[in-house]
Design brief:
about 110 residues; 5 helices; alpha/beta; two-stranded antiparallel sheet; about 30% helix; three-stranded parallel β-sheet
């Protein structure tokens, strides 16, 4: 999904919501052509981003200027909570350590 597509939908008065299941390990994605391939690059264009991987994922959305809501997967957070490992953890502090640059789509 391109940011311009979401903006066009928003301009029609339609509420846009991104529901993401994989924020703990794919929020940033990889950088291609100066743009992040994960939700980070388009999250601020949506009216709301729903995340369910880890309550701390809301920090990442805030970092990129997006509104988010954490909803635990399933009915029991303790049973279904994300189990972080060194391989797939992308916290805000690790993002800062990777010197994440915010990408602006405004010209």
């Amino acid at each position: 999904m391109y940011p311009q597509t979401i903006e066009k939908i928003n301009s029609l008065g339609i509420i846009t919501i991104n529901f993401s299941f994989d924020d703990p390990h794919r929020f940033w994605g990889t950088k291609k052509g100066g743009v992040w391939t994960g939700a980070a690059s388009i999250a601020s264009k949506y009216d709301l981003n729903i995340t369910c991987g880890d309550p701390n994922d809301e920090i990442k959305y805030s970092f990129v200027g997006a509104r988010s809501l954490y909803i635990p997967p399933g009915g029991n957070y303790e049973r279904f909570k994300f189990s972080a490992s060194k391989k797939n953890t992308t916290s805000l502090s690790s993002a800062k350590n990777m010197e994440i640059e915010k990408t602006s789509y405004h010209s």
